[in-house]
Amino acid sequence: MKRFWVAPSILSADPLNLAAELDRISAADAVHVDIMDNHFVPNLTWGLPTVEALARSQKLPLDVHLMISDQDRLAPAYAEAGSESVTVHFEACQDPVKVAREIRRLGARPAIALKPATPVSVLDQILTEFDMVLVMTVEPGFGGQSFMPEMLAKVRQIRSRLARENLDIRLQVDGGVKADNIALAAEAGADFFVAGSAVFGSDSPGLEISRLREAARA
Ligand code: DX5
Ligand code: ZN
């Protein structure tokens, strides 16, 4: 059976109780960490010391999503900090291939994200350098926004290329993913789902993670 991954975004967790919040999501496949700089996106979150502390203090793989400017210069340090995967935005890289190779050399999996207005065609020459593609299903910057169903066409387009070329690359969606739309994203070809408010807004985050996985399979 196809394996679906669910990664809660700690953007929606209680920042004063992160350790306890992480205990509540031990059933997840990874922890999604949104790094924002108030420049590439109009919001500010964490930086390297937090990623290093997360890598030291808990067992789940860290799926680090960079929403910062100048990623060519800044992304490699996030690979060194102990991330399992480092997702760079196509729009914030001068040389995505070079940064992907550097991330891989430093021991993490490189992934590439596309903002809603960025077409899939930008991946034409560079896709195979990455282990995962992230199709943003909201404008990056904030949790709790509504899923953009028109992004599913991009998911379908990428999935069909992956199938055609038999590429083992994960396809992630991030933004507004809930139990009532996750099946649509899975049907379009996504196999890795980020969910912030759906998981941390629930009284029972562990149950919500199972619910999302079940709904993706439906
Ligand atoms: C948005 C972030 C997302 C966000 C998702 O820029 O990349 O990871 O936390 O939160 P929800 O699931 O609430 O849309
Ligand atoms: Zn994210």
pLDDT average, as an integer? Answer: 97
The second-level CATH architecture is: Alpha-Beta Barrel
Q: What compounds sit in this structure?
A: D-xylitol-5-phosphate, zinc ion
Under CATH, the topology can be stated as TIM Barrel
Count of helical stretches = 8
Sheet-strand content, in percent, reads: 15-25%
Q: Superfamily at the CATH H level?
A: Aldolase class I
Sheet/helix structural class: alpha/beta
Domain tally: 1
Query: In the CATH hierarchy, what is the class?
Result: Alpha Beta
Count of beta strands: 8
Radius of gyration, CA atoms, in whole angstroms? 16 Å
First-to-last CA distance: 12 Å
- SSE series: EHEHEHEHEEHEHEHH
Topology record:
Layout: E1 5-8, H1 18-23, E2 31-36, H2 48-57, E3 62-67, H3 71-80, E4 85-89, H4 96-105, E5 109-114, E6 132-136, H5 152-164, E7 170-174, H6 182-188, E8 192-195, H7 197-200, H8 205-217
Helix pairs in contact: 3-4, 6-8
The structure holds D-xylitol-5-phosphate and zinc ion.
The site of D-xylitol-5-phosphate (DX5) has 22 residues, from strand 2, strand 8 and helix 7.
